[in-house]
Structure formats: C-alpha cells, structure tokens
Amino acid sequence: MVPMLGPEEADAVAETVRSGWVADGPRVVAFEKAFAEEVGAAHAVAVSNCTTALHLSLYLLGVGPGAEVVVPSLSFIASANAIRHTGATPVFADVDPVTGNMDPARVAEAITPRTKAILLVHQGGQPADVEAMRAVAGDVPVVEDAACAAGSRLRGRPVGAGALLAAWSFHPRKVLTTGEGGMITTDDAEWAARLRRLRSHGMSVSAADRHAAEQGASKIVLEGYEETGFNYRMTDVQAAMGLVQVSRLAGIVRGRREMAARYHELLAPLGLRAVRDPSYGESNFQSFWVELPDSAPSLIDVLTDLAGAGVSARRGIMASHLEGAYAGHPHPPLPHTERLTSRSIILPLHHELTDDDQRTVVDALAKALRLDPGI
Ligand SMILES: *Cc1c(COP(=O)(O)O)cnc(C)c1O
After folding, report:
1. Which ligand 1 atom sits closest to the C-alpha of 171?
2. Which keywords accompany this UniProt record (predicted)?
3. What is the mean pLDDT of the chain?
C-alpha cells in the first residue's frame, strides 16, 4: 500500500521538531481527541502500535495465564500474538466464507468457562457484526481489533462507536498512518485513565501535566507508580502526522470506495467474487480481495503471472494457525479460513492508481486465470 503523505505531514513533523517537544506531549493529546471524535468514541489513548494496543486492552480486562481468548486465525498474526503476550491461550474460530470475519456460531462453540474475551477483527476493513457477536458472547467482553478499520462503518455509525475497547493501527499498510503507531478507544473514562498510566510505566502524572506544573500553570505534583506499567507511548512526532492524517481520512476512504466500485464493475464479466460491503455496513476497502475460482492455477502461479505483468498483488489474508509460531497449537476445523487464505489474492488499491491501471490489473488477472475477459 502506498501511504498518502503530503507536504502537510512533512511540515507538521518539522514544526514538532522545532518545538522541541518530540516525546509524548500536547500533539498526542490533540491527536487522541481528534481520533476519538472521528470514530465516535468518548476516549482515545495513543500507544506505540496496534499490537501493544491489543495487549494493553486484554491486560486491562485481566486476561492472563489460564485464560482463553477466541480469535480468528484468518488475521494478521499480531491478533493471536497479543493474546499470547498476556500469557493467555488463543482459541481459533472459523470465519464466514463471504465476509472473512469471525462467525458468531463458531465463536459460540469455542466459548468455555475459561474464556475471558473475544477478539473480533474487522478484517481488511470489512466491518464485523459486533451486535451479532455480542449476542453469542453473553458476559464475555468483545474487544475489537480495528487495526484496518479506520473509516469503515457499521449500521450507520463509524466502527469504534459504542465499542467496549477497540484497538487501531497506524502502520503504513493501514489507511491512516503515523509510521508506527496505535490507539485504544473506549467510552469508559476510568479505563482510559488507567490505560494512560499503563502505557507510561504506571506513572500517575502525565508528562504534559508535569510540564504544566513546572511552568507554574498548576500546583507541583510528584508522580507515583501504583502498578507495574509498560512503555507503550506514542511520540509527538508521530501524533503530528496523525493529526493531518485524521483530517484526510474521510477523503481517503471515499477514494478507496470509488476504486473498489470500479474493480467490482471490471470483475463482474469475469464472474469472480470480490469482497463487498456487508448488508449492515460499509468497508474502507483497506484490503480488496478476490477469490480465485476452482479452475484457477495455484495462488503462487497467479501471483507470479501478475508480477510478470507488473501487477503487485499479494496473497490473501494470512492464517495464523498455518504458521510455525502456532505449529502444534490445537484448533477446530477451519475450512473457510484455509480456503480464503489459499484461494484469495489482494489487488493493488492506493491513491495513485488510475482507471487505466485498474483495467490493466483486471486484464492481467483474467490472463493469469486463463479467463476470457470478453470485453
Ligand atoms: C496490522 C494489524 C495488526 C498489527 O498492527 P501494528 O500496528 O503493526 O502492531 C493487528 N491486527 C490486525 C488485524 C492488523 O491488520
């Protein structure tokens, strides 16, 4: 993915450097506020990346050794890894073959008395049905891995609105980037305050508050450390980029949705199934994937042919249970996960792509699949 960065981001970063405040400071606070507003959450807590956002969210809920967390295998491996980082056990559940998101019926089967959370991934920006998941979750908290879902919508509201805890990524592969970076959003003020302490060594006073006190703006307060925290902070340099990127988000998503619609038009005559909006929401199409028909050559052959034609497609979403890190890890049958990971590819979709480029991609795909475009 080609990140959409312009002179505004470069200026914002340069200004931050000149200000002298490069670590966690006022720009982080401003970025948190802007991001919370954008996704319809009461609070946002900026962190170093989405993996730490996921870890901290689970840690906050008391997930630890002996606990189980239900998660899709069909996700970037960080989803499952963050569960392991708490000492808990990831329990893989299969996905819906159409949306690629975790199937509530499979989650219901995976819940045991040890289940302490469900990690629901809005995969590739495709909004997952949070309400349907809550209906099977009962008392088990649903944490949202919204790494890919900034700007996606669910029942008329942004993904993140009403979320118990949602974790976001600002890696350059995502729609909104700060280089590295992440965020946790929630409507719970006490949780947000504790997350702020936990991301910064458990410190009771933030750097911004201490600075204000030292400048005489408020009473001097000595910080305390009531619990063992982490260093998961974001810097003001990252937040300065983030502030510009948040203001671009709606436009970025509009552009991606137009390109997805164009791909749908071009792919229709080939009879290929591509990811689409679910009935209950709108995707930001961070990942635009196409399922290969049964008649198609192997995934590697198709990607090789496409690369030969100058088209940089990627394999579909990975399946964590097939990686060495999870070798021997028990799991139920995951037929839809295995089919989607081995038989889907992600087409290029970025702001520099022209209509002609999209036609070139689809023509190359038709050739690689030995299909007749007929147009
Ligand atoms: C990218 C991604 C992550 C990890 O995000 P980082 O910011 O790189 O830690 C986690 N979950 C999903 C679903 C992702 O796509």
Report:
1. 7
2. Aminotransferase, Pyridoxal phosphate, Transferase
3. 95
Q: Is the CB of 16 under 6 A from ligand 1?
A: no
Ligand 1 centroid, distance to 134 Cα (angstroms): 23
- Asked if residue 375 has pLDDT above 60, the reply is no
The pLDDT value given to residue 31: 98
pLDDT value at residue 373: 58
Ranking 116-120, 131-135, 208-212, 356-360 by mean pLDDT, the lowest is 208-212
Q: What does the pLDDT read at residue 210?
A: 75
Secondary structure (DSSP) of 271-305: T-EE----TTEE---SSEEEEPPTTS--HHHHHHH
> 225 has which bridge partners?
203
On whether the CB atoms of residues 283 and 126 are closer than 8 A, the answer is yes
CA 265/CA 18 separation, integer angstroms: 48
Cα–Cα distance, 314 to 288 (Å, whole number): 10
The tally of CA atoms less than 13 A away on the side-chain side of residue 188 is 13
Is the CB of residue 169 below 6 angstroms from any atom belonging to ligand 1?
yes
Measured in Å, residue 170 CA sits from the centre of ligand 1 at 8
Averaged pLDDT for residues 253-282: 96
Contact by Cβ (8 Å): 293, 272: yes
Token pair 């911004």 in the structure block, residue: 208
What is the number of the ligand 1 atom nearest to the C-alpha of 54? 10
pLDDT at 7: 95
Candidate from 73, 81, 171 with most ligand 1 atoms within 8 A of CB, to mutate: 171
Catalytic residue among 116, 174, 219, 367: 174
Say if residues 305 and 367 touch (Cβ distance below 8 Å).
yes
Between β-strands 89-93 and 68-72, what pairing exists: parallel, antiparallel or unpaired?
Answer: parallel
pLDDT in tens, 19-69: 999 999 999 999 999 999 999 999 999 999 999 999 999 999 999 999 999
Catalytic annotation present for 174: yes
Going from the N-terminus, what domains does the chain have, and what CATH number goes with each?
7-247 (3.40.640.10), 249-368 (3.90.1150.10)
Per DSSP, the residues of 206-271 read -HHHHHHHHTTSS------B-S---B-PPPHHHHHHHHHHHHHHHHHHHHHHHHHHHHHHHHGGGT
Pairwise CA distance, residues 123 & 149, whole Å: 8
